[in-house]
Fold these 3 entries.
Entry 1:
Amino acid sequence: MSSTPSTKRVAVIGGGILGVSTAVHLLRAGASVILLSERGLASEATGRSLSWLNSAGERSTPYHQLRVAGVDRYRTLFAADPDRDWLQFGGGLMWNSAGQAAATEARHDYEESIGYNSQLLAPEQIPAATHGIDPDAVPENAIFNPGEGWVSLPELVDFLMEEFHALGGELILNAGKVSVTVDGGRAAGVETAAGETFEADAVLVACGAATPDVVAPLGVDIPNGSPVSMLVVTKPVEHGLQAVLNTPRAAVRPNPGNTLALDHDWYEEHITEHADGSFSVPDDVVQELADEASKLIAGNPELKPASWKIGYKPIPGDGEPVLGELGQVPGCFVAFTHSGATLGLIAGELLAGEIMTGKKHPMLATFRPGRFS
């Protein structure tokens, strides 16, 4: 009679960075994994994330610590191959509107107080700290955080999926809306929109802004504060930008292929959601965002949008991540957070550890879904 323990079978719902990262970490730990995506991989928030790797500004201490650990995991990945054009560490630069110099100084003072690398710069000091920025766009002062970076998540997902397939993971695309099946009060597997079922010892729900809707039938209420957002990718343009920019009218980061990725929130009122769940925005609004971004770049190059994607940006109702096992349904785990990019690698690592061992990680203690019960 064999004493070899049976392999744990885990079903992961969601083909974004949190689902894919957790799936790969589970496979590394010896689990059998089936990953199901409603449509394709990186087809929702992961495919339209500014994906700025940071823990700038003020937030709860546990959240800050988790984000710093998240950036650390990306640094490890970066060190293995610094030439990847989809993961770079060129720092982050932010500034406020004119008349808010004191608020910028207060943010800098706070970041310094917690040991976060923060430099308060006058406009004329910016070119010496980082390249490709028009200092005339900065009204009074700015904060440069040299330890920050960015990742293009679709390329990261492709990179991780190579390992997923090499380790024997099973992938089901276009599964439609997948639900969690329960037997005896415990998660027992998943069911696709077509009625196909898959048994599992544990289930992870990592469906971005749809996560609360997926767990609601289980009697679990997770407040959802997800707004509509847009990511614009420009046509290729010569620029020397290395840092991620977070400014009053545009957020900008470098992107593979000498393009730029653009984001903000002022245009949300111009986005229309249609009855079929699709979204639209006037072309002139997209161009206005590109024009605002152009003002930030050295030489003010003409920026032309090549593509834009619109959808819900995952944000839990209280702003804090929701990570861990559901108390009402043992064996069912969730991953729902605004900072999916920054936490993508670390959250997958810690959740996989909890799923495989049953031991709760202390860094996730304040992020449990049970706080809403």
Note: The chain has two domains: 9-47+154-223+317-372, 86-148+226-312.
Entry 2:
Amino acid sequence: MRSSRLVEMMLRLQGSRRTTAAALAADLGVSLRTVYRDIADLSAAGVPLWTETGRNGGIRLLDGWQSKLSGLTGAETSALMLLGVPALADDLGLGSVAASAESKLLGALPLPLRIGAEQWRDRLYVDTPGWFRRPRTKDPQLPTVADAVLQGRRLRMDYRGSQRTVDPLGLVAKAAVWYLVARSRGRILSYRTSRITSAVVLADTFDRPDGFDLAAWWEHAEAEFDRSLLRFAATLRLSPTAWRDIAHHIGTEAARVTPSAPDESGWVTVELRLESEEVALGQLTALGAGVEVVAPQSLRRRLGAVGAAMAARNAR
């Protein structure tokens, strides 16, 4: 968005003695014309920019000028990552700190940029839990766990009745449920923070694994967990609509298969691995008349019985 681009441009200029319009255009992914227009708007907003032409020219801020962003504390700087997600900031014990950081950030911006930022704040809300969920209960140990993650210090915790000392590598919020990703005895595991009954940040520090990427690790761990549950084999025929929607009902990993060529009606045959016959029955019922179970026969009979009962009940 343009407001965020202007802020980024201002901070880039603040962090370097001199740059060029071409370099800014490449860094920000915009045209030279856009850079020149943005520079003019920043100047009009009161940012003291100096432009020089020629071989050794460029764009720079006047010596000694800085934005007010230096007034942010360390905690407020960390809380900037949670602006727009107040529920997560509250969980981590950073609700008031995030509000303070937001106030300082807005106050530091020139008026045109501040107006754009306030519009997004007032018109965008991130609702972290899914629909139809009960109100969340806070994890009392989460702020302590978060401190250990940010400080890079070992954590001693009671988890499901046993005490462990771990190297906390990161936190993941999935559908408003928090997980600690930590190294324990050489293995990287995830722990649901609501199951941590006590936590103490230790003085010991640790070295993070080389190249560890929290998002990539979590995505891989999720996929591995999903695959570990898929032990029930089933062969299905699916209508074009059912094949298009199948991942929504059985999950992405289970639907990661190659179908047969469509028949004359567009139906395809797929070999799936699902969690269990009981789970498969509930999942496939949602596909209605767009699914036919080829095997196993036990699932075919049970799905047929469900369909017959639904038809009889709704024919009255």
Note: The chain has twelve helices and ten strands.
Entry 3:
Amino acid sequence: MSEPSSSGVTGIADLEPLARAKEQKAWYWYDWANSAYVTTTAAVLFAPYLTSVATRAAGCAVGDGAPDCTKDLSVLGLTVSPESLVFYLVTLATILSALVLPVVGAGADRSAHKTRLLGRYAWAGSAFAALMFFVTGTSWQLGAVLLVAATLCLGASLVVYDAILCDIALPDERDRVSSRGWARGYLGGGLLLAVNFGLLSVMSDTELAVRISLLSAAIWWAAFTIIPVRGIRDRVPFHPEPERGGLVRASFGQLWATLKDLRHYPQTLLFLVAYLFYNDGIQTVIYAASVYGERELKFEKSSVLLAFLLVQFIGVAGALGFGRVAERRGARSVIMAGLVIWVLVVAAGYLTPARNFPLFLLLAAAIGIVLGGTQALSRSFYSQLIPQGREAEYFSLYQAAERGTSWLGTLVFGVVQQVTGSYRPALFALAAFFVVGLALLSRVDARRGITEAGNTPPAVV
């Protein structure tokens, strides 16, 4: 099954505790690495910055207040509001991800060098992220291409990264390991965001400060990826039904087989559908929060950054706390409780008046508590529902709705803003995503799904 290590350890179940713990610690560092990009670039700075660039290209004034632009951009013959451009780009990236990532996952499952693949995708994504430094003036087209490319590379790296969780953690360890990874990510992303917050506070040229911050996130992502690439050993892939032909042919063959076989895992399929809905809501909140804070609630960029810093550092405690509760209550039950909190958070966001910063910070604190916990436990819970040897391909389906690849929520957000001229009505749709996801998740039989996938249920399901 697995390649022997230098200590003679073979297979997941036979890993010595110390050797397994060492690999887990190396694995955490990729959450630390990519969260700098996810936080500084994807969630906080690039969306409003590209919106400003697009607004300038449309011939409108650019400021930190509410949207005052009634002019549109022409994109491939279509009329697009500059205020909605980012949401459409994320939608496009997600549609492309749905086509590309399953093939990436199938290839990773057949590769004996998952860590090498992780590094390649991460370093390609960080290169695209670094080029965002050159998005200036009215060059929204360059920014659009780089955002889509970096998002695809991030998704590809996360497919491989999440699949490695099944190699380095036993079933009873995965909630804890996944939660610690998310906590490490929030800490790392928060530290770099704090540095960039300071940079934005002291530099008079705000646009240059944003561009430097974008570059710093790319460098951080690339540099810290070295640790998991060097610290996690590769394993011989496990394939009960190998496909003939080269890697590309075998990848598409395995993908087709997985899509056909998915009907044999109804609980896994049900969870994926539930996750598609509620994670679309989560991802849209992540992408839209900075734009919503600046353009709708009329806060300056520095104020929005401060709120995100609060989310990051409270998110560390939230992820670890949710992980501990899951050890006693089971991941599914804790996720469901988190979704109820999400509905309340979205409702509070709709009611938050413009320029009420204390209430905005309170809302950020609530998001921090629930954000990391629901995402970390979703990852570990899903890892229990997938068959051995096809982890990366199944995680590619999972990544279609993971960080930075939401499309239903962002599409709704963009369309509603373009039609109404306001972001507030779109929050009603986000609440619906959480409610539908919660209803579907309540129907998932966790123990049955784990055993159907051929896995051993953890002590607490």
Note: Residues 17-452 form a domain with the Growth Hormone; Chain: A; fold (CATH 1.20.1250.20).
